[in-house]
Request: fold
Amino acid sequence: MRMMRLLAGVALASLLGVGAAGAQTVLRSSDTHPDGYPTVEGVKYFGELVKERTGGRYEVEVYHSAQLGEEKDTIEQVRSGVIQLNRVSMAPFNGTVKETIVPALPYVFRDEEHMHKVMDGPIGEQIKAAFEPAGLVALAFYDAGSRSFYNSKKPIKTVADLAGMKFRVIQSDIFVDMTSALGANATPMPYGEVYSSIETGVIDGAENNFPSYDTARHVEVAKYYSLDQHTILPEVFVMNKMAFDALTPEDQELFRTAAKDSVGRQRELWTAMTENSRKKVEEAGAEINEVEKQGFIDAMKPVYDKHVKDDVLRKLVEDVRATQ
Reply:
């Protein structure tokens, strides 16, 4: 019996990353974005709060710039407990946590303020709870702004302009179907491969927010940025559920509160970075144009018909749209 308790303790220590001295628990967190990016800084701030509020019993090491792998890989790592924390887009979870389909739907949010009200309220709590059967605890939702198409060929002003063009999209069925509904060809691929794929003509462009367009230097190979703003997709900060359950109830509450407190910091940094990135890409030669947005919205009916296919999701969509 004593040996079994010892082995259980060793396994738990391994899961939580406890150092040899056992005095401090080190948690590893992954992010695909570069150092200084708002999501990276949001998780760093979370780590600072956790360290301060636990008197140094816990420390968070943030591995930025896809040091631990691209999002698809790190999702599996955090679910299995290889790493304890992860900041990722919600779109890759669409096949695992069905409730994440709703915030990933094109044009489901009217604007960023509407998204904040939804994700900060009961709907956000419902979506967080849905992560637990997947072996994860959703701690916070971070801003990722609105995503728009950009390409190396021409300005996109109407849906017809997208016909036949090839775009990299997130590895998500919704994004593939959205792009197809607009008459373009979707090519899911890891974020790190986008620059060279545009440069060599494998794809014509991609879709993302201004900070990603800027920091990944995609403006160098795709100068036409069209403000269709098809999604305002929040990102999620998750923790391995076994690691979370191993915390005391007091520490669980502390972790949740620290994550909630990190959201305000991340949003401030996001707003500032978005404004700065737009200015930088304009100075670098980006041609930014408005689109006839209603045509894009009208084209999304088959996407909703395909992906909003049960009462839970239909009710969530209704609740999102009703949120004022």
